[in-house]
Amino acid sequence: MTLALTLALVGLLMALAIWTVVARDTFAAVTGFVPYGLLLTLAWLQLRAVDVAMTEAAIGAGLTGVLLIAAAARLRATEAPAWAERPGLATRVLAAIVSAAVAAGIGACVLLLPDPAPSLAPAVVENIAATGVGNPITAVLMSFRAMDTLLEAIVLLLGLVGVWSLAPDRFWGGRPGPAPTEDPNSILGYLARVLPPIGIVVGVYILWVGADHPGGKFQGATVLAAMWLLVMMAGLSDAPAVDRRWVRIALAGGPAAFIAVGLLGSVIAGAFLGYPEAFAKPLIVVIEAALLPSLAVTLALLLTGPPSRKDSSE
After folding, report:
1. Do the beta carbons of residue 227 and residue 199 sit within 8 Å?
2. Are the C-beta atoms of residues 222 and 272 closer than 8 Å to each other?
3. What is the pLDDT of residue 179?
């Protein structure tokens, strides 16, 4: 990428970031956030961080954008009263001062780093061969910081439980979202029949190659969740009732498998989430494969929201 294109990308990122922060209308802020995420994907590609770019495109701009659009739609009725509560001049000046101080502090921390900056990269390079994984991102996420990855999966699950807790008591155990209405002649219905088989293959492929090439469970799960959401949006399938046993098993199965492998490591390798060197890669692949459906179901159900109607199949 030439210098001119790089500067143009930086300028657009800064402009969209400022727009997203200062926009008073919620939907306008979201419309700035989504292209900001897509441009940030290009920035990560420029930095040759392909895994991060894929995650940003799929989760940062994709699913998060859809989630924010849904939130903006729900908040539309409350925006007019909120506009009347414009903060006073003193509050705005104080907020600007605090924001500038935080930005200055972060900038100072970056500029005052020693040269060379402290890094664990040499230790990672020295020990990465023991994992048997060719993708350094996967090796780091699943070995050197496996505890963080496990907690990320658990936090997503707890976030879904938090969303479900917003449901009225009379709808608990029911289905989220409106009842499906199918239009067999719509373009959405056509896409919901054509794209999911392709998307499922792509999602599984991204998981499979993630051990040695850019990709992995989070990116693959996002593709699978998007395909499921497309089918539900087209009315071809209803959202599952949250009290279904298969839903609970799918949600908890991935983190449970992760914890089981960690406990196995305590016995065999002498440390929780420790991998015996000869079995490191197979165990990492097992964990990623178990997390794929759990993350896909979690992400899809996060976007469908809390239960809002009773299960008509009962």
Report:
1. yes
2. no
3. 78
